[in-house]
Model the fold of this input.
Amino acid sequence: MNLTLRVWRQKSSRDRGRFVTYKTKDVSPDMSFLEMLDSVNEELILKGEDPIAFDHDCREGICGMCGLMINGVAHGPEQTTTCQLHMRSFKYVDTIVIEPWRSKAFPVIKDLVVDRSAFDRIIQAGGYISVSTGGVPDANAILVPKQNADMAMDGAACIGCGACVAACPNGSAMLFTAAKLGHLNLLPQGQPERYDRTIHMVERMDEEGFGGCTNIGECSAVCPKEISLDFIARMNGDLIKASFITGNGSTSSSDG
Amino acid sequence: MATDTRPKTDIRPITEYANANLESRVPSGPIEQRWDKHRFDMKLVNPANKRKYTIIVVGTGLAGGSAAATLAELGYNVLAFCYQDSPRRAHSIAAQGGINAAKNYQNDGDSIFRLFYDTVKGGDFRSRESNVYRLAQVSVNIIDQCVAQGVPFAREYGGMLANRSFGGAQVSRTFYARGQTGQQLLLGAYQALERQIAAGKVKMFPRTEMLDLIVINGRARGIVTRNMVTGKIESHVADAVVLGTGGYGNVFYLSTNAKGCNTTAIWRAYRRGAFFGNPCFTQIHPTCIPVTGDHQSKLTLMSESLRNDGRIWVPRTPGDKRPPSHIPESERDYYLEERYPSFGNLVPRDVASRSTKQVCDEGRGVGPGGLGVYLDFSDAIKRLGVNIIRERYGNLFDMYERITDENPYKEPMRIYPAIHYTMGGLWVDYNLMSTIPGLFVIGEANFSDHGANRLGASALMQGLADGYFILPYTIGDYLAQTKLDKVGTDHPVCQEVEAEVTEQIKRLLSIDGKRTVDSFHKELGKIMWDKCGMSRNAEGLTYALQRIPEIRAEFWENVRVLGENEEFNQSLEKAGRVADFMELAELMCIDALHRSESCGGHFREESQTPEGEALRDDENFSYVAAWQFNGLGNKPILNKEPLEFEYVHPSQRSYK
Done:
């Protein structure tokens, strides 16, 4: 396969950035998308040009480190992570436009690499169960209905890649936040902190500069783990209850 | 080795503080009481004094993440470092199968002693009994802890935890969360860590790579790091340093490890005086997706549960290129079933991998390059129906199809073994402390619990045991009985180490040769895989020991690393890691050559039974080989920790 790539190049967060065109030859359909970029980079280095920076690590679809906007779609044409996308998906395409995640809350570090630390700060606001090591009951002393455990797992499957934010026209992090809230709030262990957790995580999400949700659903459509919009509905339900229970109305603009 | 052109720096000698006679510090008494007794004997740090101590934790996977969170909960100040953009991404996340614990929830006869026994035997009698027993003991606490944190383990309809049997174990002791157990356990530790970051007890440094260790007066007192965004080189000092930086499987270039996994932290510690235990013990996983071409950047593992229903075979005739459906039953060789009638396709990982290599070496491999064998589900589909197979393995079949573009419901999968885990690592005593006082090593980075072969679902168990339940006690004992001088980052040793690190980076950037870092890494990996991979012999290892220094010398003359230090520079990051892999590779071959027996994952062709099985030599090799750095270009010094087996008596493993 011979392809034309238009790749976003930006030296640092202070640089303006621009698209640069590269021609690639002899791309094998069995290559993963990232292996195709590897081969472009090998050539660039031999020519003395700065290789394209992009984030990646496990290359098996679970660490959440990789993430590119490919022809305008987060993670490209298949609903999977960028590392699990293969070049055979581009048989009928001759130009591929590659951009970083674009969101106010995810500033570009270099080329296709962005800073997603805002996600960590949302977790710091309450995305945990406050239990220290030791002094916990026997594991089977806490019974969890299978249905709840399965649903909690659906939310917990989030890999924190940020595709939901990148795909959302509002740059909202509702799906990410709701998935973690859904995971913890569905479990008996998560009940004591349920409403405080909800308020604090949503507040932090707003403070980090993520937009509000207008029920478009792009987030779920690109989510490699197929996390459902239902989690956002569940979160909004908890948010409303929380404002009564804690007497601490949310200042959120998250009007899902 | 004389060809090495790496700048020679002064390595401070091991001082009188070092544990040079390899004292394992295992407590005495009956094995089931040793850990309790030891916990009582250890000195405690007064709760009000804990906040006066600072501990550095490098790596935030299951071991590092759980240790950092637990130490902070106890009141210590923690500085935590990871090379990823967030601690949630450490490669522990990729573990699929599950985590073992001796809960005996299924009432099928499991016990702490049975888990201990299985692990010592599975490790082919090359691990330390007391450590393994302790691991089995705390395994039950791990499950309690993780459930309390909200880890969504699989459940039965009554709300109880579900278990499965895994990796040929005869009891169901494996806890799991779909095929994402590692992810869920890591997120549990990550969330505990984020809670401590929010509380101000942990200062987190993501996208920061440890490039060297600071040893002052014979004790580990800090690290030198590079900020991967700005390039800033700086020192961090503390009262103790903990490495939880994972394994070194990427020395082979192609492995199931994440691309960023590297040996730099433990290798730098080795060069500063920490002994390296059993570096040649590496594990090969039999069910990975085969290589498709030179572009391949990593290998993908398919859960070993596939062997429960899939049948492994190759054509009987070498060079048979017919499609699998055209090869009649009589011309197929179901080699595992034939050789090992009682275990069949479920023989342990090392046995399955070696048999696969053998049939491929005979020219009977399938697929591109002949490096693959069939894993065939057609009988299982006939027997159980396609729906049951889809229910059991649907996600794995989808993953396989996405990567290979072949439909495993219609044609057999192709699989080939790949490097998966490294049992070797820095030598540690019972307290998980290395031979450098104040330097603790946990998880895959240490050598300790798995001997020469790790059992399935035991890596997660060991990482969390070390981080949640062992290190937090033993590090307190060290701090309580050690008088440490105050040191700051302006200490001359910090300045010196920073200067050495900066010098190496400058040198890498100034070579401006003709080859990329990856091309060197691939060349090194190929030699390691061919000569120090699934099976090894003296001739091949001797050849590797001659070639590796030559490649290393060329690397230092001909590598091309563009750009500068003061920027986000991925080529520079890789170059530093590959430079260290080049040195480690040599140590692995030296160790593999010296250990002329076969054991577990280490198969020396010279030492096999008439049937071609691994033949151990307990008389001469029942010890941990702990290698001591002796200056670059000099042969490392071999120290031996003898292994004693009081409770599980060494026997030849047989799976016939």
Observations:
- Chain B touches chain A through 82 residues (CB under 8 Å).
- Residues 570-594 of chain B form the longest helix (25 residues).
- The radius of gyration of chain B is 24 Å.
- Residues 1-18 of chain B have pLDDT under 50 and may be disordered.
